[in-house]
Amino acid sequence: MSKCVKLALADGSVFTGTAFGAEGESFGEVVFNTSMTGYQEIITDPSYCGQIVVMTYPQIGNYGINPEDIESSRPALKGFVCRELCRIPSNYRATHSLSDYLAEHGVIGIEGIDTRALVRRLRTQGAMTGVISTVDLDDASLIEKAKNSPALVGHDYVKEVMPSENSDWTQGLAELARTPANLPSRKLGDKKPLVVAIDYGMKWNIARHLTESGCEVKIVPGTVTAQEVLDLNPDGVFLSNGPGDPRPLDYAIQTIKDLIGKKPIFGICLGQQLLSLAFGGEIYKLKFGHRGANQPVINKASGAVEVTSQNHGFAISEESLPEDVEVTHLNLNDNTVSGIRHKTLPVFGVQYHPESSAGPHDSRYLFDDFVDMMLAQ
């Protein structure tokens, strides 16, 4: 028998649908993702910690869940919303249905609502706090809870998803991802650069790509100090993606400040935002963010347009960057900063996800660029 579930937003709107996954009540910032596929990678991306994710594509769950395509050990998001859930997946790789997987990890899902109306509201008014519940179905009560739930801005979600200790990573890409056209092209021979990857909530496919590029990868927690990184004597430092607002992460910003100029650095998503803050730049919150696998980005040097996978709700203020930092990539939808590079030091970052998973493979060359940068030192 299907169970009722409600999603209430801070603006007073309420959506009633059918529950799947876990039961209970959860709070988060309600955001939307425009990807047609890749719901498994989205669900297991730690960057969604603190958020309730709405999928714009109408049918979700048709290929189930498999262990090869997960991006972390468990989902970090606070709720999952779709128009129509496929409860009987059809895929030879699937080991779980989407509903069973969410239930196993305590994530509440809601289907059967008008996701077009919900997304239009979020586009018009911006991402806002919400509550999803199977236990409290009173509209007035839920609206009040949504209004009083904690905002994502100013909160440190990194400490909820980062690892607790150092670890070595040796896994490469899954077989289906290991086609020649999709792989980094750099051949390293016997040289294996050591990359210290600072994990603020890192997608596993980033570590897979670094390994596939011929690197030795050591993962360290986001609270690591610069001296602890330097004691490992890496050839380069990677700054990972992660959830939420970068501005409260003083410990991460200070570590990056102390590493700039000492080692080559490559940052992705939250990693790039932290890099810009370490350079003295400023960050602002986007109205509804960029989340999807179809975001066009232009490489200013080559003029090439890359279709990219993105997931972030904050952006860099271009005007705030110092003169020795240049903007290398722009998002063509709104001209926000999508890539930066120091003009003289081996330091760069991008706002999108070159590791894809799920998403286009246009930007995987950036892992080659990072390796070349390390070998040049």
In short:
The chain is an alpha/beta fold and 377 residues long. The chain is 22% helix and 30% strand. A ten-stranded mixed β-sheet has the order 10-12-11-13-14-19-18-17-15-16, sandwiched between helices. Strands 1-2-8-6-4-3-9 form a seven-stranded mixed β-barrel. A two-stranded parallel ribbon has the order 5-7.
Mean pLDDT: 95
Approximate shape: globular
Radius of gyration based on Cα positions:
20 Å
- Physical arrangement of strands within the biggest beta sheet: 10-12-11-13-14-19-18-17-15-16
The level 1 CATH classification of the largest domain is Alpha Beta
CATH architecture of the largest domain: 3-Layer(aba) Sandwich
CATH-assigned fold name of the largest domain: Rossmann fold
- Supply the helix-strand structural class: alpha/beta
* Main sheet specs: 10 strands, mixed
Amount of beta strand = 25-35%
CATH superfamily grouping of the largest domain: Class I glutamine amidotransferase (GATase) domain
N- to C-terminal separation?
Answer: 63 Å
Number of discrete helical segments = 10
Using DSSP, what is the number of strands? Answer: 19
**What series of H and E elements makes up the topology?**
EEEHEEEEHEHEHHEEHEHEHEHEEEEEH
